[in-house]
């Protein structure tokens, strides 16, 4: 559901996204892996495990919630860690992640996405309880307002990226035929036609790679 595969094929970054081109998930470098999940507004590597840890502690003794809240109030390191994860949740949007799943993930894996999104919501709820907040970024209204203002722009880029990835990954989409371009553009001498012909050997259809790069940079 992330653009990790496409990111690895593009000329972005100083090093390859994988240590071994043919390797699996274990060969991924940390930064591209986190970057890919940031693109979908799900931030999986950041929060996964937090909710399970909190839930485990509270199931042992519900009074441990008071201990965690005291740690948040009295221990700067713990407070900063919780605040950073809370900020990530404020930037996240499980609805956008669901769109990526709907467009890019096979039906047999859809339940996994639903389970992860439920985990996301549960973790966010527990995090707010530990911090003693009713809403995300309750203690930082300035950042909250900034994120709210940019949300409309980022959401538009997310939708554009998700549909671009769907077209790029479509096995029935033939790059050489370029069905999305009109005959007038292909045959004309306009600047647009020259741009289309700049990279005829690209494995991506003309414009799709540029669209993907622009959305990646905008979301990041």
From TrEMBL:
Instruction: Give one GO term, molecular function aspect.
Output: phosphoenolpyruvate carboxylase activity
A GO cellular component entry from the record: apoplast
Q: Which SUPFAM superfamilies match?
A: Phosphoenolpyruvate/pyruvate domain
Q: Which UniProt keywords apply?
A: Photosynthesis, Pyruvate
Q: Which InterPro entries match?
A: PEP_COase, Pyrv/PenolPyrv_kinase-like_dom
Q: Which domain of life is it from?
A: Eukaryota
Residue span of region Disordered:
1-23
A biological process (GO) of this protein is: carbon fixation
The answer to whether keyword Endoplasmic reticulum applies is no
Q: What is the name attached to this protein's record?
A: Phosphoenolpyruvate carboxylase
């Amino acid at each position: 559901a992330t653009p990790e595969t496409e990111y690895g094929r593009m000329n972005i970054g100083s090093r390859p996204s994988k240590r071994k081109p043919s390797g699996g998930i274990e060969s991924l470098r940390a930064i591209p892996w986190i970057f890919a999940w940031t693109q979908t507004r799900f931030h999986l590597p950041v929060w996964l495990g937090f909710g399970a840890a909190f839930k485990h502690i509270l199931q042992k003794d519900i009074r441990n919630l008071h201990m965690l809240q005291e740690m948040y109030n009295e221990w700067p390191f713990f407070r900063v860690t919780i605040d950073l994860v809370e900020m990530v949740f404020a930037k996240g949007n499980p609805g956008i992640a669901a769109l990526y799943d709907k467009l890019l993930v096979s039906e047999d894996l859809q339940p996994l996405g639903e389970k992860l999104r439920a985990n996301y919501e549960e973790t966010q709820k527990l995090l707010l309880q530990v911090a003693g907040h009713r809403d995300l970024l309750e203690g930082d209204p300035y950042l909250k307002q900034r994120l709210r203002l940019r949300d409309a722009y980022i959401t538009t880029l997310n939708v554009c990226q998700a549909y671009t990835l769907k077209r790029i990954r479509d096995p029935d989409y033939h790059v050489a035929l370029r069905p999305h371009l009109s005959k007038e553009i292909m045959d004309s001498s306009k600047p647009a036609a020259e741009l289309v012909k700049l990279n005829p050997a690209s494995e991506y259809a003309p414009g799709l790679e540029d669209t993907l790069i622009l959305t990646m940079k905008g979301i990041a």
